[in-house]
User: Which sequence fits this backbone?
């Protein structure tokens, strides 16, 4: 009996550790299974991430550039002097003199972010956001740019630190398996050829020649070809372009939209040789753009004060000058006619020597409101009417003859030439360039979106000379977009006529003392000469 108990005890002792061992192995198996599941899940997640990343990397591309810029600007300008009180509290000049105005250091920062994405195999989006501001300001520095803030210079003049939509385009390529394409959106119409030479870019930066430097919204229908008229090795493309320069909006007035329409033709574009032609019309242009109404109101107020001061200087009573003033109407936004614009460019390269020659022609086709109106003659007629009402005769002090003002409804032709070259010094990081352009009396450069900070050189009625140097910072680029450089330049403006970038008022001859005086008394900015030095530090990434 004692033996049986001992055997049973031994058997029990052997069975209990075996059961515990079995239970322990089962837990390890569960841990191993869980581990395998986690590893499989991680591998699956990584596969999903790779797929998403591959999808994003093939469809989405981000790039950008940053520029810090220093500018020194000095100009000689004619201003009124010897101001006298006409009796109405309004001070009027009796003489003019030349003064020198300068800003010894304007510092600006510009950030631009480029986006590219595919929606479908043949549909793509191209966009750019831009921030452009002056150091220490959240507004536009005085006298920068030739236009007030309008749609045609949005994101192109120093403002604040907001990112603005500079470009936003959808392209539909190879329509129906042909060489036709369609594009619509905020157009790439700034810094066009041949600006890429001066701006140190290996590629074209915009579609139109830089005489047209005007951001606008519009569309393009284009056709690309490898040979034109069956000529071998003649690749290019031609486009029909349409855009809106000003939206008139809803109202009871007769104000019309301002639209651009024309052709843009890359006649030959292969490697460094580029032959280009563009021709368009700006239909129903405005006399002044969609600027702040307060500016317009102030201009009308100043005109009214000047007229009142003139009447009081003749000792006239309200009953005497009232009928004359009844014929005066305040300035209101209106359409004044059409502007035709044509330009061509030839750009090429001989080893390290890049060069180009370009020319432009502009022509006005005004309506009854007139373009290039002699507003000084209009003021002279007002003064003559007041003098006559005061009973003055020829030879009497204060007598002024009538100029017989009427709106200029004649077409005026203007032209420009633009030459330039750049030499890349062999085996160094240095490039040196020079440019020259000339604009005639009635030349109109459509460039409110220029990048010259103060005044558009390609809209100048006169001569502009520019020399510049570029230093490419050495180092290995980490992407196809990447480079960094320093650019130093000098511009000299020599004006022949007033009113660059303006088609409303007659260009007054700056070599004529009488016309200088008329322009000054009218409040027109009469800059004679200007000098600008700039230094930029730029990086593209």
Assistant:
């Amino acid at each position: 009996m004692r033996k049986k108990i001992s055997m049973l005890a031994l058997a029990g002792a052997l069975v209990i550790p075996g059961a515990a061992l079995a239970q322990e192995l089962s837990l390890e198996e569960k841990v191993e299974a869980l581990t395998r599941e986690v590893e499989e899940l991680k591998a699956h997640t990584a596969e999903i991430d790779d797929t998403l990343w591959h999808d994003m990397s093939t469809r989405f591309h981000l790039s950008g550039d940053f520029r810090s810029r220093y500018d020194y600007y000095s100009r000689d300008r004619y201003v009124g002097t010897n101001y006298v009180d006409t009796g109405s509290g309004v001070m009027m000049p009796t003489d003019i003199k030349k003064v020198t105005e300068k800003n010894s250091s304007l510092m600006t920062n510009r950030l631009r972010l480029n986006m590219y994405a595919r929606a479908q195999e043949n549909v793509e989006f191209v966009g750019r956001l831009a921030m452009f501001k002056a150091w220490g300001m959240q507004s536009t520095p005085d006298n920068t740019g030739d236009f007030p803030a309008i749609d045609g210079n949005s994101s192109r003049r120093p403002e604040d630190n907001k990112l603005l939509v500079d470009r936003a385009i959808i392209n539909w390529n190879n329509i129906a398996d042909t060489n036709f394409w369609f594009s619509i959106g905020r157009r790439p119409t700034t810094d066009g050829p041949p600006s890429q030479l001066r701006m140190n870019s290996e590629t074209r930066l915009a579609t139109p020649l830089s005489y047209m430097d005007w951001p606008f919204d519009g569309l393009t229908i284009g056709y690309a070809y490898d040979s034109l008229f069956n000529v071998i090795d003649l690749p290019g493309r031609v486009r029909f372009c349409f855009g809106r320069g000003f939206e008139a909006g809803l109202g009871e007035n007769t104000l019309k939209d301002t639209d651009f329409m024309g052709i843009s033709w890359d006649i030959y574009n292969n490697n460094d040789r580029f032959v280009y032609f563009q021709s368009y019309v700006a239909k129903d242009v405005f006399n002044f753009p969609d600027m702040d109404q307060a500016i317009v109101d102030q201009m009308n107020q100043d005109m009214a004060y000047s007229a009142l001061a003139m009447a009081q200087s003749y000792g006239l009573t309200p009953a005497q000058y009232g009928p004359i003033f009844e014929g005066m109407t305040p300035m209101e936004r209106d359409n004044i006619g059409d502007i035709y614009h044509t330009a061509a460019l030839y750009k090429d390269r001989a080893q390290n020597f890049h060069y180009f020659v370009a020319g432009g022609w502009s022509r006005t086709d005004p309506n009854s409101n007139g373009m290039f109106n002699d507003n000084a003659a209009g003021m002279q007629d007002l003064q003559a009417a007041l003098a006559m009402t005061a009973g003055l005769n020829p030879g009497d002090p204060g007598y002024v003859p009538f100029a017989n003002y009427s709106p200029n409804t004649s077409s005026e032709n203007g032209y420009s030439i633009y030459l330039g070259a750049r030499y890349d010094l062999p085996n160094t990081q240095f490039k040196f360039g020079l440019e020259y352009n000339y604009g005639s009396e009635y030349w109109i450069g459509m460039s409110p979106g220029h990048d010259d900070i103060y005044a558009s050189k390609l809209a100048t009625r006169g001569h502009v000379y520019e020399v510049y140097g570029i230093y490419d910072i050495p180092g290995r680029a980490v992407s196809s977009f990447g480079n960094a450089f320093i650019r130093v330049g000098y511009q000299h403006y020599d004006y022949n006529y007033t009113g660059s970038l303006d088609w409303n008022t007659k260009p007054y001859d700056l070599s004529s003392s009488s016309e200088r005086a008329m322009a000054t008394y009218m409040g027109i900015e009469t800059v004679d000469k200007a000098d600008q030095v700039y230094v930029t530090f730029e990086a593209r990434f």
User: Anything to note?
Assistant: The longest strand covers residues 95-120. The chain has six helices and 18 strands.
